[in-house]
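Quick start: read one record
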Amino acid sequence: MEDKQSRFESIVNLFTTRLHAAHKTTPMLYGISGVLHNFCKHNLEEFKKQHVNKNKEFDRSALAKHNDIRIAYDDTGTAMQALYPSTFVAMVSQYDFLVSQCIREICTLKPEILNNSEKQLKYSEILSFEDFDEVKQWCLEETIEQVMRKNHEGQIEWIEKQLSCKLRPEDPVWKSFIESTQRRHLYVHTGGAVSDSYLKICRGHGIDFPPEVTQGVFLAIDQHYLTNTFTTLLIMGTLLSQVLWRKFAPDELELADKQINLFSYRLIDYNDYDSAIWLLKFAKNDIKKYSTENYRLSMLFNLAQAYKWKGENELCYKTIENLDPTALPSRFSLAYYSLTDDYANAKKAATAVIKAEELAKEDLCEWPIFKDFRQQNEFTELMQELFDEEWTPPTQDGLRTPFERMLSKWGVSKVGIEIAMPEIKSEKQSENTSPDTDLSDPS
């Protein structure tokens, strides 16, 4: 049982951590690459000023030096152009790895699946195995490989059949998933050029294209599209892994609850409210059993605050409107009053939880759910009364996470987006939508 438990947690954490890391760091890497590219451009321009005379004649003795600088300029520009497509392919690959791991767990925990294997072995091949366990392992690997050779929709169909459950989310997530995985095939096999197969499969799922997207056109990958892919794969991967986890390890509900709650909080802390909302809507609507009431309430309040910080106050209030704050545990009462802008009662609730040592001062000062509360006079009074400290409400820049402030320096103002069908753009169309970094030829 211990191996099984640690295995589920490891699979889920590896997927979410790698996917989130790729999405989080790519804009920074793009910005850093842009700085380096412009540095090379400046050096190239300065070099030409020094070694090209008024008649535009080049000093041949400096040719080797010029070539070194020129290659550095070209390489950094090429690296920038390849960064988003490379990250996109890597993201889908992380999802593929998650699926293969899930299939392995399904076959391991339901060994009767292997009984349906139609693989045949020659007598000589059987003799090559040392024992029957090796034969079973061979069947397992062959089954995994057989399923992974299916397209992404076929993989989901196979898992749905084995688990007797539905894993397909509603549109637009499903359409986005189909389009993203098909575009991944394009980048792997055609360098991003539209194929007839891509058009047929996407249109078969109700995906519409603008007139200019025809066979042979190159499709773009930009930050907006990459974020949409991140959200789509995160939803699909979480849905798959959570269903599997809860079905085969019911005694591990607390770990499963903790994983989805902590990761959704992490998304909120990074201001990626749309991804958090999709995950927490799944938790609210599809998870029928929680390990504790505290986890159910935590996910519910995280959903409410994600709506609020996204600017959808009505949905925030609707999410928690049936709760009685006076009947809730103290820290959830505080969360309720903070989200509903009842700051007088929020101050009373905060005083109670601090005196009961249910929360620390740092929790009040750092948790995003108290973001608006920290802007109020009641919070200033609270800090003075409880801690004898003067509180200065943070500036607007201080309301953002350190990560978001870092991104803003590179011209990336929005981390998350509302998931919708990806905008299908050709490379030519996307030229005018790329960041400010100048990729023009300085020669």
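Residues 2-51 form the longest helix (50 residues).
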